[in-house]
């Protein structure tokens, strides 16, 4: 019925329609689609499905829905502890310690960096102490250093934490971290087996 502004008011008994995943309109009360062919907006479709129909969506569609939903909420929709989206990678870090350390000090330093990793949720796969070796060139007026290697699974953010700890420790003169792909990971597994055999023989 017309109002004073010249516009038509919404009828009290008019049923409200909302968009669904298929692009059709759904009645909130009866859950029936109507014949209106007007395509709903993407944002409205996503909001409705996240709040009401997530349980009825196949996993592939749910993943796509979450990715699109994050565009509107700037990533606030993602909670790794809820959806368990793991980003663990396999890394190998080799670092060189100053040669003036005793064997006990070297072991304590390596243990400290292992703790940095484990405190951030990393899984230590292998640890190797290569001993005192001559450097290819002089570093900080030193011609040799203690080499150590750690192999572990961790999230990418853990690498920044570990390398910050390296830079703050005066006993570390060089370090490098490499991310394994499937081929280097397979090679590293074979090397771990050989290293374990050497330890048993010793």
UniProtKB/TrEMBL annotation:
GO function terms (MF aspect): small ribosomal subunit rRNA binding; structural constituent of ribosome
Keywords annotated in UniProt: Ribonucleoprotein, Ribosomal protein, RNA-binding, rRNA-binding
GO biological process, one term: translation
Keyword rRNA-binding included in the entry's annotation: yes
GO CC terms of this entry: cytoplasm; ribonucleoprotein complex; ribosome
NCBIfam families, per the entry: S6 (TIGR00166)
UniProt protein name: Small ribosomal subunit protein bS6
Organism, scientific name: Prevotella micans F0438
Gene name of the record: rpsF
